[in-house]
Amino acid sequence: MPRLQALLFDVDGTLADTERDGHRVAFNRAFAERGLDWHWSVETYGRLLAVTGGKERIGQFIATWHPVLPEGLDLDTFIADLHRHKTHLYTQALAQGGIPLRPGVLRLLREARLAGLKLAIVTTTTPENVTTLIEATLGQGALDWFEVIAAGDQVAAKKPAPDIYRYALGELGLSPAACVAFEDSEVGLQAARGAGIETVVITINDYTQDQDFTNAALVLDSLGEPAVPYRRIAGLIEVPGWLDLASVRWLHRAATQGSKWS
Ligand code: XBP
Ligand code: MG
Q1: Angstrom distance (rounded) from CA 229 to CA 242
Q2: Sign of the C-alpha dihedral computed for residues 177, 242, 202 and 113 taken in this order
Q3: Alpha carbon of 184 to ligand 2 centroid (Å)
Q4: Which residue in 26, 76, 184, 195 could disulfide with 89, CB within 3.0 to 4.6 Å?
Q5: What is the distance in A from the centroid of ligand 2 to the CA of 21?
Q6: Is residue 86 a part of any domain in this protein?
């Protein structure tokens, strides 16, 4: 049975609660600053989250809602420019400390580092967003904590395709059986499981908590902290309160030995 050698973290929804009050707000500001009368409500954004990637999400909005567009524009160029502006606004908000890490994230990252495990980021979002979030929350130099940052357009097919996880495994030089992934959404879970990686889901807000997480090794509402314990939603876990590295190792061992989760 392979030893646990790396923890792979999704970003949006997993490291931090970025979607509703981060990405969505930046999209809306970018629309307004580009003179567009579009507005993505909390509910509309929830529907659009089924499409991963900001450029792809704007494309989906245009294809579905048919907003009026300036005459004769090149759609790809228009979307790329709008999305670049959104990234600028979003990273500005992150750099000002606008979005904290979720409970338990820092604790587990530190514990994994101390134990000599490799860490990786596996996300659909734009690389600048990852860099800015990590530096704003973990400090300058914290990018070095991560052996691999797999993000955005590094692969053609975004989550739920497994490609970004396969890319990260290749860069880490590890087999899927040596890793555990952390995700918050069904599309993320599909991507990690598609690459053969056991996955812990930490659900977040109304956007993902009712999704299908049948294939997760464990589903919690957060990683938990002594002061902010998690709620277990599905799967077996021995330790109440917060998910520490010993529990992750136990899960990994049980899952790779083929235990049945319920
Ligand atoms: C979440 C996403 C991203 C962000 C927007 O990625 O789907 O598209 O909502 O980011 P993950 P960009 O959960 O894999 O971190 O606008 O930079 O694409
Ligand atoms: Mg996510």
Answers
A1: 6
A2: negative
A3: 5
A4: 26
A5: 14
A6: yes
Burial of 114 (0-12, 13-18, 19+ CB in 10 A): exposed
Which ligand has its closest atom nearest to the C-alpha of 19? 1
Residues 197-240: tens digit of each pLDDT: 999 999 987 788 789 999 999 999 999 999 999 999 999 876 77
- Nearest atom (ligand 1) to Cα of 13: 13
**Ligand 1 site, CB within 6 A:** 10-13, 19, 23, 52-54, 87, 123-126, 129, 159, 188
CATH number assigned to the domain comprising residue 205: 3.40.50.1000
Q: Kindly report the pTM of this predicted structure.
A: 0.95
* One-letter identity of residue 112: A
Mutate to test the pocket of ligand 1, among 31, 124, 187 (most ligand atoms within 8 A of CB): 124
User: What range does the domain containing 193 cover?
Assistant: 6-17+100-256
DSSP letter, residue 158: P
Phi, psi (5° rounding) for residue 91? -70, -30
User: Using an 8 Å Cβ cutoff, are 132 and 103 in contact?
Assistant: no
